[in-house]
Each structure stands twice: as structure tokens, then as C-alpha cells.
From TrEMBL:
InterPro entries: Glyco_trans_2-like (IPR001173), Nucleotide-diphossugar_trans (IPR029044). It is found in: Cell membrane. This is Glycosyltransferase 2-like domain-containing protein. One of its GO terms (molecular function) is glycosyltransferase activity. PANTHER family: GLYCOSYLTRANSFERASE (PTHR43646), GLYCOSYLTRANSFERASE 2-LIKE DOMAIN-CONTAINING PROTEIN (PTHR43646:SF2). Keywords: Cell membrane, Glycosyltransferase, Membrane, Transferase, Transmembrane, Transmembrane helix. GO terms for cellular component: plasma membrane. Residues 10-140 form the Glycosyltransferase 2-like domain.
């Protein structure tokens, strides 16, 4: 495509306390081979208490603020102020390569009524949590079925036709967007060429646990979607197993306690085995096997807490 035929694009970046990574993300955008004059960078700050806002102001064309609101509302605000006909959603902790925008625009121009997304890759030299949670296998790369909010190329008309992201969802709004786009007749495609490097993966078990709690807080609020998700039922079984252990202790019933612990073990092992088979990543040693099992136990524990949390807080 010649420069004269290139469309302008609006890159929308939601941000909350992202001072650690957002400057790298914005610099990468400014170094792209796509003409800078055709790139509008919009950062929407979600009430950051760190230096995010000041960094964003140095590199962005527009900086908007929305102190209260879920990530869907933050992205929608950016889209409302966008002036280009092509919207690109990128996260503040994601890095692109120099031709990323060019490839995405080319895909959109060659495929009408299609929305494109890309996968997230780990950084070089990831820590053990990143490595053993994502289980990347270069020989057998996998693509997720739905869009990720960290990497979306979409015509503004398509985005507006479904009223953008669901603003009520605390997480999973990208999968919901994918589903509604398909129901509206658009094609949703994930292309490996649009991969971004995700810098913001959890760096500790505490951070990993907190993030999974957050991801599961919508289970009961959007129950119709949850019941079709097999992981929802795995989490239900995990909670039942925990309850068996508690009741077994209260009733001094060893059999019930053993059944509870056995169920938790089986569910954790089954989840680990499923992930290994899907990714074709085969652990190199006992330490990696142990790490995978630990992460899956923390995952199920956190998802269980996220499911129960709205009930305890009386928000369901």
C-alpha cells in the first residue's frame, strides 16, 4: 500500500498504574514503520496513583481520564474520542514490533467485515510463573479462539454496531465482544502475525492468585455464559471438595476428609495434564512438573475464591 492509500488508525490504551511498562509500549508505537501522522494514540487513565498519567502525556495525542469504571468502559471512552475509522486496542504492558500496525491494517483492508486479534507472547527470559503458566511451545504454537483486549484491530463501524465492550463486566469483556461480533455477522480471526509481547504477566504467586480471583468474579453475574464453560464446573467441583474437607474436620470423619483431598488432587492433576497435552509442552524435569501443579492448584483456589466472593460481599 502506498502512503496515500493508508488509512489513519486510533490506538486506544487503557491504563491503571502502568508506569513500569507504558513508556516502552508508547515508544514502540512511535517507532513503527506506519506513518506517525496517521497514528492517533489515545491513553485512557483509570485513576492511576503512580506516574502513568505524566508518562502518557509525553507520548500520546489524547489522554483521557475515567477514575471509576471497568476496563470495558475505559476502552469505550477511548473509542468515542477516536477520530480514525480503524480502532486498535492495545494494553499498556504490551510491546509491538515495527511493522505490527502495517500488518494489521493490511489484513483489515483485504478482508471486509472481519475483526482481527493476535496472541500474547512472553518476554525473553520469563520467570518460572510465566513459563509454566503459559507453556509456550515454538514447535506447536496455539492461538486462542477469541479476541484479547490487548490486541484488536477493528473498523469503528463494526465496533459501534454492537455498542462496544460490555461495561458491566470486570473481566472477560474481550471474549464477550468476540461472541457479539460473530452474532452480528462479523468474522473474528486470530492471526499469529499480530502477536504482542506481554510484559505484565504475574511475577509472584500472590500476584497470580489475585489476578485469577479478579478473572472469576463475573462467574455468577453472567451465569448463562458461565454454565457453558467447562472451567466453571471444575471450579464448582473444587469448592465442593474443599467443603468436604471442612465438614469432615467438623464431623471428625476421616473418610470425608480423604475424599475431599483426593478430589482436589485429581482436579489439579487433570487440569495440569490437559494444559500439557494442549500446548504439547512436556516438562523437562521434576521441578517443572511440580511448578505446573502448584500453579494449577493456585489457579483453582483463586477461581473458587472469585466465585464465592460476590456471595460473601452480597453483590450477587
Amino acid at each position: 500500500m502506498s502512503k496515500d492509500s493508508l488509512p489513519s488508525v486510533s490506538v486506544i490504551i487503557p491504563a491503571y498504574n502502568e508506569e513500569r511498562y507504558i513508556e516502552q509500549a508508547l515508544i514502540a508505537l512511535r517507532k513503527t514503520d506506519y506513518p506517525n501522522s496517521l497514528i492517533e494514540i489515545i491513553v485512557v487513565d483509570n485513576g492511576s496513583s503512580d506516574n502513568t498519567l505524566h508518562i502518557a502525556q509525553r507520548y500520546s495525542d489524547q489522554v483521557l481520564c475515567l477514575k471509576k469504571g471497568n476496563v470495558g468502559a475505559v476502552r469505550n471512552l477511548g473509542a468515542r474520542y477516536a477520530t480514525a475509522e480503524i480502532l486498535i486496542f492495545l494494553d499498556a504492558d504490551c510491546l509491538i514490533d515495527s511493522s505490527w500496525i502495517s500488518r494489521g491494517v493490511r489484513l483489515l483492508k483485504n478482508n471486509e467485515n472481519t475483526v482481527y486479534g493476535g496472541p500474547c507472547k512472553t518476554r525473553q527470559n520469563p520467570n518460572w510463573i510465566e513459563k509454566l503458566w503459559l507453556l509456550e511451545n515454538p514447535k506447536y504454537p496455539r492461538l486462542q479462539p477469541d479476541l484479547l483486549g490487548s490486541c484488536i484491530f477493528i473498523h469503528k463501524q463494526n465496533f459501534q454496531s454492537i455498542n462496544g465492550f460490555n461495561e458491566e463486566m470486570t473481566s472477560g469483556e474481550d471474549s464477550d465482544l468476540s461472541e457479539r461480533l460473530r452474532k452480528n455477522g462479523a468474522s473474528v480471526k486470530i492471526d499469529r502475525a499480530l502477536a504482542v509481547v506481554h510484559l505484565g504477566n504475574p511475577q509472584s504467586l500472590k500476584e497470580f492468585f489475585s489476578r485469577q480471583v479478579w478473572h472469576s468474579e463475573n462467574y455468577l453475574r453472567f451465569l448463562n455464559n458461565s454454565i457453558s464453560d467447562y472451567m466453571f464446573w471444575i471450579v464448582i467441583l473444587f469448592i465442593i471438595s474443599i467443603l468436604l474437607i471442612i465438614f469432615g474436620i467438623i464431623l471428625l470423619n476421616c473418610t470425608t476428609i480423604i475424599i475431599g483431598f483426593s478430589s482436589i488432587t485429581l482436579l489439579t492433576v487433570a487440569l495440569s495434564a490437559k494444559r500439557i497435552l494442549l500446548t504439547r509442552y512436556f516438562p523437562q524435569n521434576i521441578s517443572e512438573i511440580a511448578g505446573i501443579l502448584i500453579l494449577d492448584f493456585f489457579y483453582l483456589s483463586a477461581r473458587s475464591k472469585g466465585l464465592i466472593k460476590p456471595i460473601i460481599n452480597k453483590k450477587f
